[in-house]
Structure prediction request, 320 residues.
Amino acid sequence: MLISLIIPCYNEEQALPFLYQALCELRSGLTGTGKSFEFIFVNDGSSDRTKDVIKEYAKSDSDVRYVFFSRNFGKEAAMYAGLEASKGDYVAILDADMQDPPSLIPEMIRALDNDECDIVAARRVTRKGEPKIRSFFARRFYKLINRMIEVEIADGARDFRLMRRVVVDAILQLSERQRFSKGIFAWVGFRTKWVEHVNVERVAGETKWSFWKLFKYAIDGIIAFTTAPLRLATIAGFASALAAFGYMVYYFIRAVILKIYNDVPGYPSLLCFILFIGGLILMALGVLGEYIGRTYIEVKGRPIYIKAEDENSLRSSRDT
Ligand code: UDP
Ligand code: MG
Prediction:
């Protein structure tokens, strides 16, 4: 039985040696159990020596495979490329920085072997070691998105998971360009078992996610999985129209029935209303624009990533 481990790497030359060693230990710990491994490193256009490090491993270790991107396409694209390249019966995705502890993998394999589930996914029970502000916004985000979408995304869920082939094939069918894997994993369904672990800090290097990048990712996530913001715009428009109508009736009664006309002041309130309505209209247009923009990008149908090289070039040049 073949197990594929996919590792998205972006500027990870410092972390990779730790990870590779852990993977080798994992492999030797499972020899004789009929399990073989392939390690698929996806280099997401790193600007450091990540590529060379991976090639070194591939030269001496036939279980190492790789995909190099022509530029940085993002972790989502890297995961997709890895899943596409994988041939294993079980497939796992793990970060290069050891924040997804490879030591959990044997337990995950056992769970799939015993047919307890189709996906074993890791979940952090703490966010210790993460900037407070990031944890705060992350929690809010999960609350918000789970209220808006039909499937449930677990707070603290990572991309770290071991899946059966059927699950991988299902995920590959969702070939959208603006990928939000946490949503995609939840959307495809199947039986999921959670294994919990405490937050581990990265062994070396630094996080590739700035606050801004995470914020954009959060918006992408919401827009990719729900049209609720559009409905919100409709509701806001409806509510303000209703309020305006009420206001109209009020003035009508004042003027026609109570005969009060001495109402020259009121310029400020008028201005407020115009600004408020104008703001609502712009907001609704903005929300609409977000969806139309994304539709435009999807419609272009560009590939999710561009491959510059894979392990075949190394192996075939050696054979000849
Ligand atoms: N990563 C990637 N492409 C990117 C950003 C990140 O392939 O554009 C990889 C990175 O090399 C790592 C994983 O995604 O293996 C998670 O990144 P990181 O550890 O920086 O994120 P954090 O753990 O801080 O959420
Ligand atoms: Mg990390």
Notes: The CA atoms of residues 313 and 319 lie 10 Å apart. Residues 95, 97, 99, 202, 207 surround magnesium ion (ligand 2) (CB under 6 Å). The chain is about 50% helix and 15% strand.
